[in-house]
Amino acid sequence: MTAAAAFAFTPSSPRKARSPAAVLILPIVVVNAIGFVVPVINLAVMSFQHIEATGAMTGGWSLEKWHDVATDDYYWSLLTGSLWTSFVITCLTLIVSYPIALFLHRATGTLKTVLLVAVISPLLLSSVVRTYGWIAILSDKGLVNSALMAIGMHEPLKLMFNLTGVMIGMTEILMPYMVLAVLSGLGRLDPRVEEAAMTLGATPFRTFLRVVLPLSMPGIAFGSLLTFVLAISSFITPKLLGGGRVFLLATEIYDQAIVSLDWPLAATLSIVVLVVFGLALAAYTRALKTIG
Amino acid sequence: MDDRPISRSLKIIAGVAFVFLLAPVMIVVPLSLSGEVYMSFPPASWSLRWYAEIAHSGKMIDAFVLSLKLAVLVTIVDLAVALPASYALVRLRPRGTELLKGIFTAPLLLPTIVLGLAMLIVFARLGLLATFQGLLFAHVVVTLPYALGVLSTALDALPLDRDEAAATLGAHPITVFRRITLPMMMPGVVAASALVFLVSFDEPVLSLFISGPRLTTLPVAMYHYVEDRADPLVAAASVVLVVLTLLVVVVVERTAGLTKTFVK
User: Fold this and answer.
1) Other CB atoms within 10 Å distance of the CB of residue A207
2) In this structure, what CATH number is given to the domain that contains residue A96?
3) Has the ipTM of the complex gone over 0.90?
4) Cβ neighbour number for residue B160 with a 10 Å cutoff
């Protein structure tokens, strides 16, 4: 399998196969074949595998997991719930990220560099740490509720172990992706166009609405695609901030794989996630065409 | 050049958004200095007890050491694999270079949960589950795209004339690479190493799928701890990760340029 994969990527004649380029990329081809290509193909195969009630896999084939997923209302509600949650998270992320991107687009010099680093750095920090930070902010004795109690509230707001907490945490965690996508989209914006609109008497708000926003649509579309896709496949934050009370597609995949050990079912649900990916990508491509 | 001052309303809105973005990272620092037994913010008393607690927690120390070993080895393996590959793809450009680049970037595009599950199933059959080798291999697969990307960019930016001069003077290609190309692309190598080290050290998803009860990386140990208990111990561990992240950010910014690496 590995050797075959290696040869498929290199010129086919035996003399050429020993060429320096082939030798140099052989290690990465081997790593990718064993660690990526084979597992992913195997995953698709696994979703059609038969599993006994005891959990034993005897090697037979069956469509039962696909049948279960297609007919059980639980999985449909999981799917629609995950789609809706990811959609809301994407909208929220866009709303809080756009001003930062616009600000960064207009900022110059050291300020711009420092703020860009501040946007990128959280990307490199483990989502476990960032989720934990949100627990400190949102829990009953967290920052927000302590502040509310201090100004005279009696009951803490339930901001965690529910969908609200998951959405707040996910929004913040996905912000850097959206900021960077919108920022690169704003690169196309010629400041003279804005000036022209202002000179012609448009108010700043109207200039934003009619000039800046339409021109930044491609960046918004790309950022939204990225955010949506990452939102639907995240499970660390939904698990920790949801406290086991929020059920989404990604958390179900993890539970089935690690707790219930029903790998065919987990595999089937992952293929569903990949299909959603494909559809989101198709929607993005279409949106991009309409925007022009 | 756009020299218009930024409007005050944009400044305020962007400022609030920045606070929202950085709040969860910032809050772990004061929280780690809490003297309380349970998590509460702001803490009623201050102390270094949770740092002492970590130092005495065998589990967290073991997890930290494992993550450290893992990240160092992942970095070494990545360089050994990605350096020759980037040289081939940038300098030799064999047929299908673009396709190959796409294939080598693919592990980054696939949702980590899907990749984690895919690896879990295959690794179980190969006997790699809950083994150090399994973790190492999984981390190498996901970090290679970063290494390859940063190294290729660094190599691509180098002028060819010195390599050519050395080659004309009769130096063997390997000598040219070792004596000329590699030293010139050193900033890229440093940046790639720092990035790979950090991504491996911070990686929770694949590790959750591959690691076992007796083989736990730091992010996995923190995840399980937060699932069970709400006390400031994880805040102290988080501060360690935040400091490490900042260090890597500085290294990458000084060498390859952080913004250049992430904003295309």
Assistant:
1) 18
2) 1.10.3720.10
3) no
4) 10
Q: Does A149 touch chain B (CB under 8 A)?
A: no
pTM score, whole prediction: 0.88
pLDDT one-digit tens code per residue, A148-207: 999 988 888 999 999 999 999 999 999 999 999 999 888 777 778 888 888 888 888 888
DSSP state of B46: B
Residue B110 inside a domain? The answer is: yes
DSSP state for residue B93 in the 8-state scheme: -
Is the CB of B114 less than 8 angstroms away from the CB of A273?
yes
Inside any domain, residue B7: no
Nearest-Cα distance to chain A for B158, in Å, is 19
Instruction: Please give the residue of chain B at the shortest CA–CA distance from A236.
Output: B205
Q: Which residue on chain B is closest to A172 by alpha carbon?
A: B21
Cβ of B115 under 8 Å from any chain A Cβ? Answer: yes
The phi and psi torsions of B136 (rounded to 5 degrees) equal -60, -45
d(C-alpha A228, C-alpha A236), whole Å: 16
Q: Are A174 and A227 in contact (CB under 8 A)?
A: yes
CB B136 within 8 A of CB B77: yes
* Rounded Cα gap, residues B207 and B218, in angstroms: 10
